[in-house]
Specification:
With 340 residues, this protein is of the alpha/beta class. The chain has helices at residues 6-9, 15-23, 82-94, 115-119, 123-130, 133-150, 162-177, 179-182, 197-202, 299-302, 323-338, and strands at residues 46-48, 57-61, 104-108, 155-160, 185-191, 217-219, 223-224, 264-267, 274-277, 284-286, 291-293. It has one domain. α6 (133-150) packs across α7. The longest helix is centred in the middle third of the chain and has 18 residues, at 133-150. The radius of gyration is 19 Å and the shape is globular.
């Protein structure tokens, strides 16, 4: 099966150009409705289907890339929504490519919930929405992947934002019910959504990472500026998450400097093309807030004034800031799992 190579041709285009090139001015929806099932035997329902050449797979779930153009729209998009299709390509290029050296990257399309709608909800209500259509789609896709593509290989789960929220549902329910599959999980990179002590307490079959080499674990952090006041990060809100430092791979509140990092994957200020930048992001855990603090990024340059997140919430750059450290760590954990 051949990977969709058109990913490469659009890899560095800004999201706005994606929409113009792939969508036109409108963003129509298909006829599928929440509650119906997606047929993942159809290649059109996959963002990436690789020809497997590595001994490890990566199952990637993209972040929120769809938004409502009209308040009257459904709060769940269609599987062929053109804004989502375009945005998922851009997300893959700046996020999933970090894991391509560690494994064969599989990525399904799934019907997303509108971010503004879900973020305005209490945490319990938000989980109920995500556990509906978004998580059902990804779970169906993962089942199909396991049955038809995986062939018994170890796998890495990787996601961001809503994608991570969906992966947490997959970890909580599917992995609990399928321990023989869970044994093959190298790691779950659940970035951009808090993994709380309560979540782990409710799911004793899961465990959080303690260092750079452990496997079968969850890795999570949410990045922000030291200037962000407690409770002002919409993604985290008052959910105190567990955090591991993606530079030093410790759980301690010791600063990891930019000199210790392996590089970031950031947009050029002029061309907007993503490229490797050395010496950009430091990292320090704040256990009180349950976040990762980056003190070296430029708030004004990275956060649009009209952003609902507000200045200093580096949600869009959780993976970009630590792209090459994540790449090296995924390779390392895969090798540890394989016994290399």
């Amino acid at each position: 099966m051949k990977k969709f190579r058109f990913l490469r041709s659009f890899r560095f285009l800004p999201a706005f150009l994606f929409l113009l090139l792939l969508c036109g001015p409108s963003a129509g929806c298909g006829k599928d409705k929440p509650g119906s099932s997606i047929d993942y035997s159809q290649s059109s329902h996959w963002l990436s289907l690789p020809a497997p050449v590595k001994p490890v797979d990566v199952f990637y779930v993209y972040p929120t890339v769809w938004y409502k153009l009209d308040p009257a729209e459904s709060n769940i998009c269609a599987i062929d929504n053109r804004i989502m299709l375009a945005g998922s390509l851009a997300a893959y290029a700046r996020q999933a490519t970090a894991f391509e050296t560690a494994g064969n990257v599989y990525a399904p399309y799934y019907r997303q919930a509108d971010a503004i709608y879900t973020l305005s909800m209490p945490e319990a209500d938000r989980w109920n929405i995500i556990k509906g259509t978004p998580a059902q789609d990804v779970t169906d896709a993962f089942k199909y992947y396991i049955e038809h593509f995986n062939n018994g290989r170890p796998f890495i789960l990787a996601g961001h934002s809503q994608g991570s929220n969906v992966i947490l549902v997959l970890l909580s329910e599917y992995m609990r019910d399928n321990p023989e599959i869970y044994k093959r999980m190298v790691a779950a990179y659940v970035t951009g959504y808090p993994v709380t002590a309560r979540f782990l307490s409710d799911n004793p079959h899961l465990k959080f990472a303690e260092g750079p080499n452990d496997t079968g674990i969850i890795i999570s952090y949410n990045t922000q500026s030291p200037a962000v006041l407690p409770g002002h990060n919409l993604v985290v809100a008052n959910n105190i998450g567990l955090v591991i430092n993606p530079i030093s791979w410790t759980r301690e509140e010791t600063l990891a400097t930019v000199a210790e990092g392996l590089g970031s994957f950031m947009p050029d200020p002029i061309t907007k093309e993503y490229k490797k930048i050395y010496q950009y992001a430091d990292a320090k855990i704040d256990k009180v807030q349950g976040v990762l603090i980056c003190s070296t990024a430029d708030d004004n340059a990275l956060t649009p004034k009209d952003s609902p997140m507000g200045p200093g919430v580096y949600h869009s750059y959780d993976i970009s800031f630590y792209y090459y450290n994540l790449r090296a760590n995924a390779e390392n954990r895969a090798n540890k799992f394989l016994g290399k």
